[in-house]
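Sorry to interrupt, but I need a hand with the structure work. It will help me judge whether the discrete encoding reads sensibly. Write everything out right here, beneath this request:
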Amino acid sequence: MGLEFIKPDTNFHFLGYRKYAYILSAVVILAGVVSLFMKGGPAFGVDFAGGITIQLKFTKHVTPEEIRSSLDRAGLEHLAVQRLGAEKDNAFQVNAPEKDESVDQVRTQVDTALKAGFGEGTFEVQKLDAVGPKVGADLKAGALNAIFVAVLLISIYISGRFEQRWLVSIIMAAALWGGTLILREFGLSTGWLIFGALIITLAFCWVLKLKFALGAVVADIHDIAITVGIFSIFGLEFDLTVLAALLTLLGYSLNDTIIVYDRIRERLHHTKGEPLEQVINAAINQTLSRTLLTSFITFFMVTVLYFFGGSALHEFSLAMMIGVVTGTYSSIFVASPILLDFGGGLEALRDQPVTANAAKAVQGGKA
């Protein structure tokens, strides 16, 4: 018997609030889109925008604000400063976005400014890396491709597992991937190609009645859109660590959704006369304890990482915190309601065979 802090016979009517959830999601996503449009896209870090990173080690205690003040006084307001490791380490990273200045020029300017502010011999340059604009552009394209491939693989897996339509979903994914490669030869940007391919993916899921895949893909896109939008609204930097968090969140959100989907499929097999809305709502309630317990534990861990993991992990852990909340929310209020509002074709699943373990789970009504 598993750990439960919500009674298994709970019957909260989640689907009754789905329209309000749709509106809330639309408002938050729209705010993010407006912010991205006004700011010309995410605030890309050196990893994606190109530039120079300088790692410094001080011999005395200083703060990022003091370093930034010294750089500002020297006319280097465009440089960003973050702490590396614990406060006692006195290690920092200075990020210089891509400009017309050479690596040697930037290093000399930083060195001169810090000597004027803190004195000779109070710091040393431990590492200096430069990322050219071409490398940054390639990394951005690779990041978009990684997210797109992950979404395609999710659609294949969900369609095969829940609807037994492996071949259809594989052909759809292969056609979409091949199409983006062909269109790229005509000079279209990777961003617009991936955006268009995701829209077409959703359209295919709708037309081919891959309803479970449609719900899972919409939920994942929903979570990514909200996370990126919040980062844009608050002017937070988008770098490779945030990309790693987004890819992690794709898997986390999918796992949350699968827990609910498994119970929905089980109930479809054993409740022949039960309305679809009642089936879905009961499945959400029966898995609620497991869903929330997993989310609380994960959120607690990434919160600890945010406060004690150092500034280098702030963006990663913050993206994870946002994603855990949106992933839990979307599995209940996005992925599941889509099966009801766009649920044509699910009745065929009632006639498919089910395992003895699944039957026992439905009868027990425990997550």
The longest strand covers residues 123-131. DSSP finds 13 helices and six strands in the chain. Residues 355-367 have pLDDT under 50 and may be disordered. Strands lie at 43-44, 51-58, 80-84, 91-97, 123-131, 237-238.
